[in-house]
């Protein structure tokens, strides 16, 4: 049996974390959740993940700043993790803005859970 894929959810809304966890755990993904970009970087020092779902607007360190820090890591495995932006302000950014920051994809809020699942599967297949 293959090991479950590990997804790190970086999101400051407990409601979105819980809904996302429920959707993804139903698909047998292992989910870890944190509330800001600083916690993402701390988690990455001790754990490996297959995908990061990154809220763009978080306290302490936002998703864009955190993504740039991940992409600058010396560990090529960690710096190459697929990162999907989750944002309610997608109109403030273009896909090009996300790509320049190092993000692989984005999902807009309010979350469409079928689209969330399809996007996660796309990056983990």
From TrEMBL:
<feature type="domain" description="Response regulatory">
    <location>
        <begin position="6"/>
        <end position="124"/>
    </location>
</feature>
<feature type="modified residue" description="4-aspartylphosphate">
    <location>
        <position position="55"/>
    </location>
</feature>
<dbReference type="GO" id="GO:0000160">
    <property type="term" value="P:phosphorelay signal transduction system"/>
</dbReference>
<keyword id="KW-0902">Two-component regulatory system</keyword>
<keyword id="KW-0597">Phosphoprotein</keyword>
<dbReference type="InterPro" id="IPR011006">
    <property type="entry name" value="CheY-like_superfamily"/>
</dbReference>
<protein>
    <submittedName>
        <fullName>Response regulator receiver domain-containing protein</fullName>
    </submittedName>
</protein>
<dbReference type="InterPro" id="IPR001789">
    <property type="entry name" value="Sig_transdc_resp-reg_receiver"/>
</dbReference>
<dbReference type="Pfam" id="PF00072">
    <property type="entry name" value="Response_reg"/>
</dbReference>
